[in-house]
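Consider this today:
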Amino acid sequence: MTLRAGQLGVTPDFELTHQLARLFRDNRTTVDQSLPLIEDRVQEHRRFFKEEARWKEDTLSYRFLTDVYGNEGISHKELEDVLIQEADPVMQSLPATHAGALAYMRERLSAVNRDIASQWWYIVWDEWVIDCLLHCSG
């Protein structure tokens, strides 16, 4: 049997209704027995996301988002300065190991940011190419 939330007394703002209080009261033993397992799972969930956040920060700092990704006019020197401060050695070595790709990226960004028409053309073209790569055979 499947019941909807409203049939159990659960409201959109999760207020304790008379119907929901009765459900908890009638199932107190089950709730009391399950609570330690639920608390363990919530703690495990929190631990996972803390570890994931640390892993992400060790790979690419949140500073990168504002200083590089959010800065379309970033110079080669500014990019190098930001990358040197990253925790990940791969990111630190990007200017040396991928100098050509970074130069191409700067040229491409310069062309795209020339005017609004170029930006729209790039968005449409890029979406079309990706769509073709994903869906066109041959």
